[in-house]
């Protein structure tokens, strides 16, 4: 076994030990296929008010511009599928990924440990961890590394577990063995396209971010357009519809990460509890949660928008 293969095997074993469900590796190079897609997406204003998507165009497509001398992109998946969901079927809904501790903290910590392990085993290796807060095209790297295929809802899918997982990367200046992409298994299915409440999946594999419920409830800081009234399917933070209807998510298994478990009160809150939520309760429930991004006022705005009396 070559040294390169030995390092690759060690890294993948350690990634699994740290709780990642899978680990794939690809060569750190310019994402040629993604460039025209990203350009067209931005040109068609599918990022709405997410102006940050226009920044660092070159860095998004070329990891060597992010990490000097980088040779490999190590992609990992971390399951977040919960064992239980919200109890009151009429209560405003939160996307499953936001039930527990903010994934940025959880994954960054694991990736830091993975990098330290590599440095201990291999020697002087430089690298950076990325958890969707930097200009890195996570899904493109995950598919390039063979971790899954890009579904028509633009989420990465695997036959074994569907799509309820986070994607993150470690970009390092170490040469490793590279994986190859897997084939697409969406076939003629259009379940996600048909089910999207706001018709945000404008074509197979193309999501207009500016029409997505997640965009309206998290990214949009001003008032939600009245044209969207009655179309939110009761989502107050994020949206899981395209994943919930995907046949591959029949195979989702509950995660085993205690930090992703929700606050004890969260799942039992009734429709009324949410409508009367105070800032104190918000702070208690979402102390280290991704929901903090929308702030108390933002969540109140979203909950009020769901009320039929609105407008």
Number of helices: 11
Helicity level? 25-40%
* Known CATH architecture of the domain at 3-84 and 96-172: 3-Layer(aba) Sandwich
Counting helices, strands and paired strands, the structural category is: alpha+beta
Q: Count the E strands.
A: 10
CATH class designation of the domain at 3-84 and 96-172: Alpha Beta
Please summarize the sheet with the most strands: 4 strands, antiparallel
Q: Using the CA coordinates, give the radius of gyration.
A: 20 Å
The rough form would be described as globular
Mean pLDDT: 93
Strand fraction band? 5-15%
- Distance from N terminus to C terminus (CA atoms, Å) equals 67 Å
Unreliable stretches covering 5 or more consecutive residues: none
Oligomer: single chain
Task: Kindly identify the CATH topology of the domain at 3-84 and 96-172.
Answer: NADH Oxidase
- Compressed to H and E, one letter per element, the order equals HEHHEEHEHEEEHEEHEHHHH
Q: What topology, given as strand order, has the largest sheet?
A: 1-2-7-4
Give an overview in words:
By secondary structure, the protein is an alpha+beta fold. It has a domain at 3-84 and 96-172: NADH Oxidase, CATH 3.40.109. 31% of the residues lie in helices and 13% in strands. It contains eleven helices and ten strands. The strands form four sheets. The chain has a four-stranded antiparallel beta sheet, sandwiched between helices. Strand 8 (201-203) and strand 9 form a beta hairpin. The longest helix has 20 residues, at 103-122. The radius of gyration is 20 Å and the shape is globular.
